[in-house]
From TrEMBL:
UniProt KW keywords: Stress response
High-level lineage: Bacteria, Bacillati, Actinomycetota, Actinomycetes, Pseudonocardiales
PANTHER family: HEAT-SHOCK PROTEIN 20 FAMILY MEMBER (PTHR11527)
Domain SHSP: start-end pairs: 24-135
Alphabetized CDD domains for the sequence: ACD_sHsps-like
Pfam families reported in the protein's UniProt record: HSP20
Gene3D superfamilies, sorted: 2.60.40.790
Name of protein: Molecular chaperone (Small heat shock protein)
PROSITE patterns: SHSP
Family: Belongs to the small heat shock protein (HSP20) family.
């Protein structure tokens, strides 16, 4: 199971837009995400358009998955920027991973600006059938 960690992310994004912060501050910018379960794994997808795969860093420590990426500005020093609405700078997001996930077998792929992380469900957490004894296994005791 995955848990969201930043309930005020949307409020921060709106505040940054209202105050004219262009995303180049040290405060992490928004990193939109989808998360869903598909069979025996959870799939998490992050939108990171324009981010170089070399700038993406994934780290797992004590059941916390941290995703960091950086989109640098593409303007030259002599550019006269008219509009700069696309967020730039550091992007960061943390997910708390439940004990039912296998953090040792996480896989990640980056294609067309989307980072896809696959988190398998641990064997101990998968549903399984339990055999029920009875009937022929019982011994009758006559008193």
């Amino acid at each position: 199971m995955l848990m969201r960690t930043d309930p005020f992310r949307e409020l921060d994004r709106l505040t940054q837009q209202f105050l004219g912060v262009n995303g180049t501050s040290t405060r992490p910018a928004a990193m939109p995400m989808d998360a869903f379960r598909s069979g025996d794994e959870y799939v998490v997808q992050f939108d990171l358009p324009g981010v170089s795969p070399d700038s993406i860093d994934l780290d797992v420590e004590r059941n916390v998955l941290t995703v960091k990426a950086e989109r640098k500005g593409e303007f030259g020093d002599d550019a006269d920027v008219q509009v700069a609405e696309r967020p730039r700078g550091l992007f960061s997001r943390q997910l708390f991973l439940g004990d039912t996930l296998d953090a040792d077998n996480i896989k990640a792929d980056y294609d067309a600006g989307v980072l896809t992380i696959r988190l398998p469900v641990a064997e101990k957490a998968k549903p399984r059938k339990i055999e029920i004894g009875g009937g022929a296994d019982r011994k009758e005791i006559n008193a």
